[in-house]
Specification:
heterotrimer, A mainly beta, B mainly alpha, C mainly alpha, B: mainly alpha, Cytochrome Bc1 Complex, Chain D, domain 2, two-stranded antiparallel sheet, 42% helix, C: mainly alpha, elongated
Chain lengths: 103, 280, 104
């Protein structure tokens, strides 16, 4: 099955710029469906980016983050060809992970 | 000499076939006036940029949009659309068998006036006609599958200029005129027309949104709206516009909607398809 | 402009208190008002120009009638008729006025 994670990391002089798009419903738990019943919360809780064995970015998400979240950040270090590992876990215990090469 | 020229000119005018019924529908004159209005009102906006709607009107919004276009929110819908487009019907045929050029890079030709049925056919309607001709149930014009499919087809036409034809047929001219009428007619309890927002107020705010200019407003459809958290079809946008002014929407792809799409697409002839679009 | 007058009428009706009339409305009064409202809605529908608030007011009229509050129900039904008449007037007016808005 196709990954839910899309990531593009580009190495600069001393900073690597990372962008990612993750496919996830990110239901807050506050929205009602057509029948008037609450759609239960279903959202990513933790997103982690690892490079060279170290965590370079952690995001703790909750009900305020929208569907199919887009994320952009930069971290010091990283060079072309290095591995960047992205993983997420949601409130139902589901997870996904992807390793991409820094460009 | 001058008298001879004038005489010839008078004879030519008298014998020339009038393109218009009753001389009160002149799409070419409308086209020129429409374009002149927007280019004069927004002299700093390059002509082709009008297709980017609010982003051509607001620099801050544009920057956010450009950053997201590197990883557009409609990426998932595009993948879904590509899958749906390639999937064969139960009888083994595909959409490629219904459309010119196998359905790739043809979005800019729609809407078309169908001389057989005497109606305007939009891309969405053509998709359903293809399905029905091949024994498949029609797709709901307001739901995700139609939005994803048209998003993919629009994507294959990105950059191609709108090429809408109004054949020399009184029914086509009537459809064009009805579309023009729909666009300028006030509706809903708020008593506004499409023109009230998109001709009189592009670049201005309506609540928190920046209004798009009517010139090129069809070019980015279908659109992913952050407000919807997903891709929505042209029908979804038109029916929502109606209810937002407290007007009861007509059924999706009703004659009025197809005609207004025809009118607005013709006004954008020559401007590039920018769909699928991403909007706030 | 007639349409503005009609919108004002509809606004006044909706703001009006639904308290006791000199003679309390009966179920028959409600039925009559409802029939007039429905006739107006039918005409608006035929003109393909209806307002979302018309249907909302109709719901309120029915709810009040079901609860036996006929004064309120009649007032709501009259509001429905005013709103439907508003959209009818709008459609008829606009048929003549729209060409003036066209960019020339």
């Amino acid at each position: 099955m196709a990954s839910t994670i899309r990531v593009r990391a580009v190495a600069g002089a001393d900073t690597t710029e990372v962008q990612s798009l993750i496919q996830h419903p990110m239901d807050s738990g506050f929205v009602k469906d057509a029948k008037g019943e609450l759609i239960p919360p279903h959202h990513i809780e933790v997103v982690q980016f690892e490079h060279g064995g170290k965590t370079v970015f952690t995001a703790l998400w909750g009900p305020a983050v929208s569907k199919d979240p887009y994320l952009k950040f930069g971290f010091k270090g990283g060079k072309k060809g290095d591995d960047l590992k992205v993983s997420w876990v949601d409130n139902k215990g589901a997870s996904d992970t992807l390793t991409a090469k820094i460009q | 000499m001058l008298r001879k020229v004038l005489l010839v000119a008078a004879l030519v005018a008298a014998t020339a076939q009038p393109l218009l019924a009753a001389g009160d529908v002149d799409p070419q004159a409308d086209f020129k006036a429409f374009r002149k209005y927007f280019t004069e009102r927004f002299p700093k906006v390059p002509l082709n940029d009008f297709v980017n709607g609010p982003y051509s009107m607001d620099e801050g919004l544009r920057k956010q949009w450009q950053a997201k276009e590197e990883f557009p929110p409609y990426d998932f819908a595009l993948d879904k659309g590509k899958e749906l487009f390639a999937k064969p019907f139960k009888n083994g045929k595909t959409y490629a068998d219904c459309f010119p050029d196998k359905g790739i890079g043809i979005r800019q030709l729609y809407p078309m006036f169908d001389e057989k049925s005497g109606e305007v056919i939009t891309l969405d309607v053509a998709i359903n006609k293809c399905r029905e001709a091949n024994g498949e149930a029609a797709l709901d014009y307001l739901k995700d599958d139609m939005a994803s499919l048209t998003a993919y087809m629009a994507f294959t036409s990105r950059g191609k200029p709108f090429d809408i034809k109004i054949p020399n047929d009184p029914r086509a001219l009537a459809a064009y005129k009805k579309g023009e009428e729909y666009f300028y007619t006030r509706r809903g309890q708020f008593n506004v027309s499409c023109a009230s927002c998109h001709v009189q107020n592009p670049g201005n705010h309506i609540r928190t949104e920046v209004l798009a200019p009517a010139l090129g407003i069809m070019n980015a459809l279908p659109i992913y709206r952050s407000e919807w958290g997903g891709m929505g079809s042209t029908s979804r946008r038109l029916t929502t516009c109606n209810s937002q002014v407290r007007g009861v929407p007509l059924p999706a792809e009703a004659e009025e909607y197809r005609d207004v799409e025809y009118f607005l697409s013709y006004m954008a002839n020559g401007l590039p398809i920018s769909g699928p679009g991403a909007r706030p | 402009m007639r349409i503005r007058a009609l919108i004002r009428v509809a606004a006044v009706l909706s703001a009006a208190s639904f308290a006791t009339a000199a003679i309390a409305a009966s179920a028959d009064d409600y039925k009559a008002a409802y029939a007039k409202a429905e006739a107006a809605i039918t005409q608006a529908h035929a003109l393909r120009n209806e307002w979302t608030t018309t249907a909302a007011a109709l719901k309120a009229a029915k709810a009040a009638a079901d609860a036996g509050k006929f004064d309120e129900a009649v007032a709501h039904a009259q509001q429905v008729e005013a709103l439907a008449n508003g959209s009818i007037a709008q459609a008829k007016e606009q048929e003549k006025l729209w060409p003036e808005a066209v960019i020339r």
